[in-house]
């Protein structure tokens, strides 16, 4: 037999599955939005993931369907399952990544700690939530937001008046998600892989440093996390994985509050930016593990290869030219750092690559990773 | 700018360049002998590397030409250089990998220790060599041999009578290479990367365990090599790299004699089986380093990621079915081992994959690697 995995979406997550697929001799096919996608090196078909026929035809060519993103509509996901295709993660799990209000309801059912929240359908409900929560709210559009898009911190309901107008026009009786502004000391992330059989493997919990709502750096493992923090993060992620029935790799983004609680912030039902360090820093990368998990193969070990791994995103990239233009200088300066170029044109704020450093001295590792990434900015 | 590397030959060495090319955003093109080659995932053109026009057209599409094997004829290599293409390694360096007699002459010129040898044109010369060297000789065809093919250990000249007949029929006035049967305790290999500018990086010397003339296992670093053995191996490889003007990654295969000398056995002007451990065991893999070197980019660090790395080849593969058929059992048994499947159909003696284990306890690491590889045999 041969294993054939189909990935819907041709972004950097699909791209980073290619090395793992090559190593394991897995036939990787990508359904990309357009030609010249980040994952274009894999056998790539260009087509619209919103088109049922396109997706169904693509599914015929592989053994299992998985995803570079969470935007495939539920109707298409269910049609795939009904036609007998293995879809991992499945529509029920993806639903919670697609709708933040359903996700909050599910997490509450599972007894997982989350920020205080409410689904608010109009300005009055939001005003009332703000009044009850110290004069602030974090308001999120339940669908389609990512990397800080669709998130506003407000102290007056009229700061999201446009979103309420859009809701009313949508006519589906939807609501916005309002959450307390959590007083957190830092953000953490727990990555997990789960097979259809239920077997799981967890990487160590990591610290994620955000700038402008976008992941900028990840430190693995999270400093000062040994013991209680690691255990609680693992318990939360395990409860969600089992409760939601995730298959494949998924990420739980967490707040560590100033009073030392962990609260779930977001879920991602796929390999995630906070797991990129694992390519160079763990025995099994999140991308290899995702392929193993969706194929229902035994999972790999998730130990750290270095005392500390630090991943720094290359956001935007050079103002002029390409990332490759900076290789001579960057490689000469940081011979131990691992460079990852997503093959995307530089554009302000866009994730175009990342670098990972590893070693025993955290200050030194942070310095090396930042120094390496800095070559690709400005 | 973007970097574009063209690889002539579509075997597993080209295949294992793909992950490094994906990570670094290097555009990798392969000129393969046939469709469905081991490197087929890369942008692959099928064509004959013996055909000048095919190779010249391929070279137009890339910035630098490099190789999966050493069989491209000198006339074609020189034509590429004359047309202004960067060919790395160049024809002069490749000549020594293509002709073992020229290689021995060059090594002697460089003052590098080699086994006692002679170019023998007929049975009388060989008989005389055998008489002078303890009644034995290792006889090699100067061109085209690999993995134990084209090598015979003889005590009578008539044991290679067929090769002398072939030489005579060839009519080019060639000779066979006769070497003393070296009394060696083990075989070592020293991998080096060299840029056109002359900068070099060496991995630690490794021990290579051969079975039936084929590399079966590699231990990195070679046990009991710290100090003198490592220094001498590095000096030999450095002298050859500079003396021959190699660019890219190359391997020096060495005998460690029972009286503790190192003698050069063979050269390979390309990534090599004795360097596969570096994918999982070194900060920079030989494949990433080869791409850096042929593009004249600064080289990466070559430190070990584990105290010990052990690579075991999967030779032949399963008698029935594919390597992938054994994944469930192998992955479950060895969760820390890294598996590499070359996407080639199993066939007796064929290198179809390898596994690498790493850790602090050499006995345990050897056990894990052998146990993992054993799942793919029989």
Automatic annotation (TrEMBL), chains A, B:
User: Which Pfam families did the record assign?
Assistant: ATP-grasp (PF02222), PurK_C (PF17769), RS_preATP-grasp-like (PF22660)
Cite the NCBIfam families for this sequence. Answer: PRK06019.1-5 (NF004679), PRK06019.1-6 (NF004680), purK (TIGR01161)
Q: Which GO terms describe its cellular component?
A: cytosol
- Gene symbol here is purK
Q: How does it assemble?
A: Homodimer.
Question: Which amino acid positions bind ATP, per UniProt?
Answer: 100, 140, 179-182, 187, 265-266
Keywords attached to this Swiss-Prot or TrEMBL record, sorted alphabetically, are: ATP-binding, Ligase, Nucleotide-binding, Purine biosynthesis
InterPro entries in alphabetical order = ATP-grasp, ATP-grasp_carboxylate-amine, ATP_grasp_subdomain_1, PreATP-grasp_dom_sf, PurK, PurK_C, PurT/PurK_preATP-grasp, Rudment_hybrid_motif
Recorded E.C. number(s)? 6.3.4.18
Q: Which reaction does it catalyse?
A: 5-amino-1-(5-phospho-beta-D-ribosyl)imidazole + hydrogencarbonate + ATP = 5-carboxyamino-1-(5-phospho-D-ribosyl)imidazole + ADP + phosphate + 2 H(+)
Protein name (Swiss-Prot/TrEMBL): N5-carboxyaminoimidazole ribonucleotide synthase
Main function: Catalyzes the ATP-dependent conversion of 5-aminoimidazole ribonucleotide (AIR) and HCO(3)- to N5-carboxyaminoimidazole ribonucleotide (N5-CAIR). Catalyzes the ATP-dependent conversion of 5-aminoimidazole ribonucleotide (AIR) and HCO(3)(-) to N5-carboxyaminoimidazole ribonucleotide (N5-CAIR).
Family as reported in the entry's similarity comment:
Belongs to the PurK/PurT family.
Q: Name one GO biological process term.
A: 'de novo' IMP biosynthetic process
Domain ATP-grasp, chain residue ranges per copy: 104-295
Keyword Cell membrane listed? The answer is: no
One GO molecular-function entry: ATP binding
User: Which pathway features in its UniProt record?
Assistant: Purine metabolism; IMP biosynthesis via de novo pathway; 5-amino-1-(5-phospho-D-ribosyl)imidazole-4-carboxylate from 5-amino-1-(5-phospho-D-ribosyl)imidazole (N5-CAIR route): step 1/2
Which major enzyme category is it?
ligase
Is Ribosomal protein one of the keywords?
Answer: no
């Amino acid at each position: 037999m041969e294993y054939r995995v189909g990935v819907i979406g041709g972004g950097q997550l699909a791209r980073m599955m290619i090395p793992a697929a090559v190593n394991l001799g897995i036939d990787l096919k990508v359904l990309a939005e357009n030609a010249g996608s980040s994952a274009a090196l894999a056998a790539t078909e260009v087509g619209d993931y919103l088109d049922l026929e396109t997706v169904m035809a693509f599914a015929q060519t592989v053994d299992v369907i998985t995803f570079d993103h969470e935007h495939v509509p539920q109707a298409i996901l269910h049609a795939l399952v009904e036609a007998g295709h293995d879809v991992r993660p499945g529509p029920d799990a993806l639903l919670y990544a697609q709708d933040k209000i359903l996700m909050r309801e599910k997490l509450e059912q599972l007894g997982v700690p989350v920020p205080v929240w409410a689904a608010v359908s109009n300005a009055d409900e939001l005003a009332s939530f703000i009044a009850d929560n110290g004069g602030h709210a974090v308001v999120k559009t339940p669908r389609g937001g990512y990397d800080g898009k669709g998130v506003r911190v407000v102290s007056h309901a009229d700061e999201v008046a446009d979103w309420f107008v859009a809701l009313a026009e949508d006519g589906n009786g939807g609501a916005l998600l309002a959450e307390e502004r959590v007083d957190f000391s830092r953000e953490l992330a727990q990555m997990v892989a789960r097979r259809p059989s239920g077997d799981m493997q967890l990487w160590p919990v990591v610290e994620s440093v955000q700038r402008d709502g976008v992941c900028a750096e990840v430190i693995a493992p999270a400093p000062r996390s040994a013991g209680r923090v690691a255990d609680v993060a693992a318990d939360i992620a395990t409860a969600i994985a089992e409760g939601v029935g995730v298959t494949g790799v998924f990420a739980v983004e967490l707040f560590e509050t100033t009073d030392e609680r962990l609260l779930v912030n977001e879920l991602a039902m796929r390999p995630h930016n906070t797991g990129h360090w694992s390519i160079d820093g763990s025995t099994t990368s999140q991308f290899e593990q995702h392929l193993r998990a969706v194929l229902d193969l035994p999972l790999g070990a998730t130990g750290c290869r270095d005392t500390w791994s630090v991943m720094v995103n290359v956001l935007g990239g050079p103002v002029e030219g390409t990332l490759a233009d900076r290789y001579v200088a960057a490689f000469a300066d940081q011979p131990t750092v691992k460079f990852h170029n997503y093959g995307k044109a530089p554009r302000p704020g866009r994730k175009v690559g990342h670098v990972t450093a590893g070693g025993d001295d955290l200050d030194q590792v942070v310095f090396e990773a930042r120094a390496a990434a800095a070559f690709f900015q400005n």
